[in-house]
Amino acid sequence: MLVKIFIVLSWIVFVYFILICLQYIFLIVISFSHLLHFNREERTGFPFEETHALPISILIPAFNEENTICDTIQSLLSLSYPKFEIVVVNDGSRDHTLKYVIDEYQLRRVDILPHGSIPTERIKAVYSSYKYNNLLLVDKYNGGKADALNVGINIASHPLFCSIDADSVIEKNALMRMVKPFLLKEDVVAVGGIVRVANGCEIENGEVKAIHLPSNRLVRYQIIEYLRAFLSNRIGMEKFNCLAIISGAFGLFRKDIVEKIGGYRNTIGEDMEITLRIHEYLRRKRVKYFIDFIPNAECWSQVPNDFRSLRMQRIRWQIGLIDSLWIHKKMLFNPLYGSVGLFAIPYYWFFEMASPLFEFMGYVIFILLLFSGAVSYIVGIVFLMALLFGFFFSVSSIVMEEFSYQRYSKVGEIAALILYSIFDQFWYRPMQAFFRLQAFFIRPSRRQKWGVIRRRTFAEDLEQQKE
Question: Is-contact 218 306, C-beta < 8 A?
Answer without folding.
Answer: yes
